Amino acid sequence: MLRWLWFAFVLALVLAGCGGSGRSNGPVTANRTMQITWPARSRAALTAPASALSARIVIVAGDSTGHDIAFTVNREARIDGYVATYTIPQPVNRTARTLTVSFYAQANGLGDLVATAQANFTSQGPNLNFVSVVVDGKVHTVTATPQTMLLSQGAKQLEFTASDADSHTVAVSPGSATWSLISGESVLSVSADGIATPLSVGTATVKVTVDGVSSPPATITVDRTFTRVFRFALPTDTIQLKGGDLNGACNLGQRFTVEAIVKPARADSRTFIWQQWANGSMDEIFVLDPDRFVGMGTGAGQPYRYYYGDQFPLHAWSHMAWCYDGQVVRMYRNGHLVSTTPATGNITPLANAEAAALGKNCGVPFVTQDFSFVGDLAAFRISNVDRYTGESYDVPTKPWEDDASTLVLVDPSTLSGTPTNFSIPGIQHLNGTLGGGSSSATSPTWEAYSP
């Protein structure tokens, strides 16, 4: 229990109107008024429950017949501290000596009990004067919730938990708390009522105080997120891939992952997210059919091998992944396994490459029937490991990092300005050219990411 003398809730009983001469027996002849000083808050609570939004007052044996006088008062919907005067609904007996107050988290005496007070008083003339006021605050510990924010998500309400001495939760609203930033001013800004706005990638520490009780520091992490996309709007849009030992292509081999985060805008025919050709006879593709997404690969002199995913939504983000571990091909969408196909050996033992691209492959003169994927691409990656196994995984919510297993990583969010040529992270050390490959090629645009 937390106890204070003359707590922030200052109680005073004042005689209103005419009354007696200070004798200690008999009822008063007029109602009394009562003042409560409500402390400042971090937020006005207009609709949400909050700590000490109402008080139930009981004057013990307060009326002329020796019964209690009980009534409830509500705090006004305002942020600043103020003194409010309330009229006691009945005349007060001069022999009354004790007053109790219960403070509640919601208006009208509802919600969790957040504090109690007891006051002893004496009668001197027209006033009731307090001998002492003792308040027991029910909030014993406060814990700020550590969390991760994404740089582009905008402002967010920080969260906390208030508990009593028995570790039971005391339900108070955000406006009951006052927040402060301990470190990380360049990473995060925090208002007094806990509205956090990310400023840059990094970590910050905060604390929160409720009814005079402060939390230990809590870490708020601001992480990278998608900020830009390549928008493929025309069937001739392309990003031509060049460089590396296979002229822009990758030897997928016996273990790989090909994956993309895309928001398709149309699916009325086969359209290409990624494709590569070699020797004019073998290729690998990652495409969207009208009813599913597809991965296809072949080896030299071998027939095409298709691996089918499932139906994808239009105008919504999907993470699509094509994984191979040397024995089984697994197709995933949005964190769920949608198909498996037994396979052995190398999917693509490439010896030489002619062209590779995101969208339409304009670098292969004899290929005329393919069309670019139409929609937004937030990320594309090829890896020399099977990154996803089992039935499910957490869907990526931020750009991938370039690591030791990354062959190709196209991330529009890392680029600046309006790119036309850019270096592509990964072991292959490729370059991307928007609208490259032929005079008929067109360029996808570099647009702001939209959830």
UniProtKB/TrEMBL annotation:
<dbReference type="InterPro" id="IPR013320">
    <property type="entry name" value="ConA-like_dom_sf"/>
</dbReference>
<protein>
    <recommendedName>
        <fullName>BIG2 domain-containing protein</fullName>
    </recommendedName>
</protein>
<dbReference type="Pfam" id="PF13385">
    <property type="entry name" value="Laminin_G_3"/>
</dbReference>
